[in-house]
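Hi there,

I know you've been waiting on this one. I reran it after we fixed the sequence typo, so this is the corrected version. Both the input and the resulting structure follow.
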Amino acid sequence: MSVPPLSAEETSPRRPLHRPALSPIGPPRPVTLSDGTQAWLVSRYDDVRQVLGDSRFGRAELHAAERTALPGNAGLVGDPDLLFNQDGAGHLRLRRALGRAFTPRTVARWRPWVTEIVDRSLGRLTARQPPVDVVAEFARPLPVAVIGRLMGLDPSLDEQLRRWSEYAFTDGSHPAQDVERELASFYGFGSALLADRRQNAGEDLVSSLVRAADAEGGIPEGQLVALVCGLVTGGQDSTATMIGNSLLHLLGERPEDWPRLADETAAGIAADRLLHMIPLGDDPGSLRRARTDTEVGGVVIPAGAVVVADCATANRDPAAFPADQADDLFTPLPRPTLSFGGGRHYCLGVWLARLELTLALNRLAVGLPRLRLAESPEEVVWRLGGTSRSPARLLVTW
């Protein structure tokens, strides 16, 4: 198999995200972010849940014109029109317009065709002569195909979607003019897609969103464009990241657990555990700004302060998740994970993400019971430059 060369950036050593360098768990405390911003770090499970669910901590204030840009605010992530950066009535309108499309019942109806896409992706993988790059041949194409089917997109756009995703979720390391150019192109695509579905409505997610937005009323076009673009890129980037990181952990450190994933119930529990324990990236947490002086965990956080809700650390809080179960993949979580946030900004795509990861692991384990790494975990190279991080290439054999 011919494997393309990797850049120096890709070969930089990185700690696997299932073994993160976590903050100490304790009461809220002052910290300094990477750009010098002074903030308050919240790390205990109950404290993080409070911050995520308390309306006194907002997202919109982070993007106010008079505020300095914060870490991770480049690209689509920093767009004030993005659903995740909205608060109040505008945020509720957007969530209502989208929320009905991602209920557990709705996602359950998608299972047959999602399974077909997973099996088709598995077939392409097994048609290759090992060793094979499971990222290029399975982890990345699969969610692109799922989001393309869901939104009614032409498969010829797949490579362009991956490119837009790279710039939409940049960590700030891309040249600003490149990000501006790619986002302008991407937003133009999103605007044209909305206009097309208004004229040629179908049964796809974008058509449903247009109908719901018209029924809701009062939603600015810029917010709808940002929502569509966020769905297109977020739906494929996050899932590809989860699959890649999960396979690295399972095949690199837990090969004895691989056969158990052939049972779909066990795969579902394991998927929940993996989503819980492996964050999407290296960011310090979910940022908020305090609107008023607010007590959290016995500490008063002052009005105007930036607050870092450290979900990765909170997910390892022994007060919420017993230490003797921390590495148990096949016991249901005792409390809700914070990997998808909480409160009003809880991720609407959680049920689809869980379904894709469960089916990906289960069908791989059924079809390739002897799947294993073809390289040492220490040799794995990383996809960098974005707010998420996962193997750029993962060679496997069977």
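Quick highlight: The longest strand covers residues 38-42.

Best,
R. S.
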